[in-house]
Write a structure and sequence with these properties.
The chain has 2 helices and 10 strands; from the N terminus they run αββββββαββββ. It is an alpha+beta fold and 180 residues long. The protein has one domain: Cupredoxins -  blue copper proteins (Immunoglobulin-like, Sandwich), CATH 2.60.40. The strands form 2 sheets. Strands 1-8-5-2-3 form a 5-stranded mixed β-sheet, with no helix packed on it. Strand 2 and strand 3 form a beta hairpin. InterPro entries: BlueCu_1, Cu-binding_ET, Cupredoxin. This is Putative cupredoxin-like copper-binding protein. Keywords: Copper, Metal-binding, Signal.
Amino acid sequence: MSFKFICLAMTCAAMLATAAHANADQVGRPHYRAYEALDHQPIGEPANGTSATEVIDVTIKETKSGYMLFQPDVIAIKTGSVVRFVIRNDGALDHEFYLGSFDEVAKHQQWMRKYPDMAHDEANSVTVPSGGQSELVWTFSSTTNLEFVCLVPGHREAGMWGVILVHDHLTSDRKSENRQ
Protein backbone atom coordinates (compact mmCIF):
# COMPACT_ATOMS: atom_id res chain seq x y z
CA MET A 1 0.00 0.00 0.00
CA SER A 2 1.17 3.47 -0.71
CA PHE A 3 1.77 6.08 1.93
CA LYS A 4 -0.87 8.34 0.28
CA PHE A 5 -3.50 5.60 0.45
CA ILE A 6 -2.82 4.93 4.13
CA CYS A 7 -3.04 8.67 4.95
CA LEU A 8 -6.28 8.97 2.98
CA ALA A 9 -7.78 5.95 4.76
CA MET A 10 -6.77 7.30 8.18
CA THR A 11 -8.20 10.74 7.36
CA CYS A 12 -11.53 9.20 6.26
CA ALA A 13 -11.68 7.07 9.41
CA ALA A 14 -11.00 10.13 11.59
CA MET A 15 -13.71 12.13 9.80
CA LEU A 16 -16.25 9.34 10.26
CA ALA A 17 -15.40 9.02 13.95
CA THR A 18 -15.72 12.78 14.43
CA ALA A 19 -19.08 12.85 12.62
CA ALA A 20 -20.36 9.94 14.70
CA HIS A 21 -19.28 11.66 17.91
CA ALA A 22 -20.88 14.96 16.84
CA ASN A 23 -24.18 13.20 16.18
CA ALA A 24 -24.09 11.26 19.47
CA ASP A 25 -25.86 14.16 21.18
CA GLN A 26 -28.92 13.69 18.99
CA VAL A 27 -29.20 10.82 16.55
CA GLY A 28 -26.87 8.51 18.50
CA ARG A 29 -29.01 8.51 21.60
CA PRO A 30 -31.15 5.39 21.51
CA HIS A 31 -34.11 7.32 22.90
CA TYR A 32 -33.81 10.58 20.93
CA ARG A 33 -37.29 11.35 19.57
CA ALA A 34 -38.03 7.63 19.73
CA TYR A 35 -41.76 8.33 19.84
CA GLU A 36 -41.46 9.32 16.14
CA ALA A 37 -39.76 6.11 14.97
CA LEU A 38 -41.91 3.88 12.77
CA ASP A 39 -40.95 0.70 14.62
CA HIS A 40 -41.46 2.24 18.06
CA GLN A 41 -44.12 1.05 20.47
CA PRO A 42 -46.72 3.85 20.47
CA ILE A 43 -46.57 5.98 23.61
CA GLY A 44 -48.37 9.01 22.23
CA GLU A 45 -46.91 12.31 21.14
CA PRO A 46 -46.22 15.86 22.31
CA ALA A 47 -49.42 17.90 22.62
CA ASN A 48 -47.96 20.79 20.56
CA GLY A 49 -50.38 23.48 21.68
CA THR A 50 -53.43 21.25 22.16
CA SER A 51 -55.33 22.13 25.34
CA ALA A 52 -55.10 19.58 28.13
CA THR A 53 -58.20 17.55 28.87
CA GLU A 54 -56.77 16.52 32.22
CA VAL A 55 -54.14 17.79 34.67
CA ILE A 56 -52.28 15.30 36.81
CA ASP A 57 -50.16 16.47 39.74
CA VAL A 58 -47.10 14.32 40.42
CA THR A 59 -44.96 14.88 43.51
CA ILE A 60 -41.35 13.77 43.85
CA LYS A 61 -40.38 12.76 47.38
CA GLU A 62 -37.15 11.59 48.97
CA THR A 63 -37.35 9.65 52.23
CA LYS A 64 -34.90 9.64 55.13
CA SER A 65 -34.20 5.97 54.41
CA GLY A 66 -32.98 6.79 50.89
CA TYR A 67 -36.04 6.01 48.79
CA MET A 68 -37.00 8.37 45.98
CA LEU A 69 -40.62 8.23 44.90
CA PHE A 70 -43.20 9.57 42.49
CA GLN A 71 -46.66 10.03 43.98
CA PRO A 72 -48.82 8.70 42.45
CA ASP A 73 -46.85 5.85 40.93
CA VAL A 74 -49.71 4.27 38.97
CA ILE A 75 -51.81 6.44 36.66
CA ALA A 76 -54.80 5.41 34.53
CA ILE A 77 -55.53 7.55 31.47
CA LYS A 78 -58.24 7.20 28.87
CA THR A 79 -57.02 6.77 25.29
CA GLY A 80 -57.18 10.07 23.42
CA SER A 81 -56.59 12.23 26.50
CA VAL A 82 -54.26 15.21 26.44
CA VAL A 83 -52.63 15.32 29.87
CA ARG A 84 -50.67 18.11 31.49
CA PHE A 85 -48.38 16.60 34.10
CA VAL A 86 -47.42 19.11 36.78
CA ILE A 87 -44.38 17.63 38.48
CA ARG A 88 -43.33 19.16 41.81
CA ASN A 89 -39.98 18.21 43.32
CA ASP A 90 -40.13 18.29 47.14
CA GLY A 91 -36.71 16.61 47.35
CA ALA A 92 -33.20 17.94 47.87
CA LEU A 93 -31.87 16.54 44.56
CA ASP A 94 -32.60 17.36 40.93
CA HIS A 95 -34.66 14.72 39.10
CA GLU A 96 -36.21 14.01 35.72
CA PHE A 97 -39.64 12.87 34.59
CA TYR A 98 -39.28 10.72 31.50
CA LEU A 99 -42.13 8.99 29.58
CA GLY A 100 -41.33 5.94 27.48
CA SER A 101 -42.09 2.37 26.56
CA PHE A 102 -40.49 -0.21 28.82
CA ASP A 103 -37.88 -0.96 26.12
CA GLU A 104 -37.14 2.72 25.55
CA VAL A 105 -36.70 3.32 29.29
CA ALA A 106 -34.20 0.45 29.49
CA LYS A 107 -32.18 1.96 26.61
CA HIS A 108 -32.36 5.45 28.10
CA GLN A 109 -31.20 4.09 31.47
CA GLN A 110 -28.09 2.56 29.86
CA TRP A 111 -27.39 5.83 28.06
CA MET A 112 -27.74 7.85 31.27
CA ARG A 113 -25.22 5.57 33.01
CA LYS A 114 -22.77 6.27 30.21
CA TYR A 115 -23.51 10.03 30.02
CA PRO A 116 -24.89 11.07 33.46
CA ASP A 117 -24.61 14.82 32.79
CA MET A 118 -26.40 14.85 29.44
CA ALA A 119 -28.94 17.61 28.84
CA HIS A 120 -32.53 16.60 28.11
CA ASP A 121 -34.29 18.30 25.25
CA GLU A 122 -36.76 15.61 24.26
CA ALA A 123 -40.47 16.38 24.28
CA ASN A 124 -41.17 13.28 26.42
CA SER A 125 -38.99 14.35 29.37
CA VAL A 126 -38.41 17.27 31.68
CA THR A 127 -35.82 18.05 34.32
CA VAL A 128 -37.32 18.97 37.70
CA PRO A 129 -34.91 20.95 39.89
CA SER A 130 -34.88 20.58 43.66
CA GLY A 131 -37.72 22.64 45.12
CA GLY A 132 -39.00 23.38 41.63
CA GLN A 133 -41.81 22.42 39.33
CA SER A 134 -41.95 21.42 35.65
CA GLU A 135 -44.74 20.57 33.23
CA LEU A 136 -45.03 18.09 30.42
CA VAL A 137 -48.08 18.00 28.13
CA TRP A 138 -48.63 14.75 26.26
CA THR A 139 -51.29 13.29 23.96
CA PHE A 140 -52.02 9.64 24.75
CA SER A 141 -53.33 8.63 21.34
CA SER A 142 -52.84 4.86 21.58
CA THR A 143 -53.90 2.13 23.97
CA THR A 144 -50.71 1.07 25.73
CA ASN A 145 -48.84 0.64 28.99
CA LEU A 146 -45.77 2.75 29.53
CA GLU A 147 -43.42 3.89 32.21
CA PHE A 148 -42.49 7.21 33.77
CA VAL A 149 -39.17 7.29 35.49
CA CYS A 150 -36.22 9.31 36.75
CA LEU A 151 -33.08 7.92 35.14
CA VAL A 152 -30.50 10.06 36.87
CA PRO A 153 -28.05 7.28 37.80
CA GLY A 154 -29.25 5.44 40.92
CA HIS A 155 -32.64 7.15 41.15
CA ARG A 156 -34.73 4.45 39.42
CA GLU A 157 -33.08 1.86 41.65
CA ALA A 158 -34.11 3.98 44.65
CA GLY A 159 -37.78 3.72 43.61
CA MET A 160 -38.34 6.55 41.12
CA TRP A 161 -40.56 4.88 38.56
CA GLY A 162 -44.23 4.42 37.87
CA VAL A 163 -46.64 2.98 35.33
CA ILE A 164 -49.20 4.63 33.08
CA LEU A 165 -52.07 2.51 31.79
CA VAL A 166 -53.70 4.02 28.69
CA HIS A 167 -56.90 2.26 27.70
CA ASP A 168 -60.43 3.06 26.50
CA HIS A 169 -62.07 1.37 29.48
CA LEU A 170 -60.02 3.18 32.13
CA THR A 171 -61.11 6.39 33.72
CA SER A 172 -59.52 8.26 36.53
CA ASP A 173 -61.19 8.92 39.84
CA ARG A 174 -58.72 11.64 40.76
CA LYS A 175 -60.49 14.49 42.47
CA SER A 176 -57.94 16.92 43.85
CA GLU A 177 -55.48 16.05 41.10
CA ASN A 178 -57.93 16.48 38.22
CA ARG A 179 -58.12 20.16 37.25
CA GLN A 180 -59.17 21.72 33.98
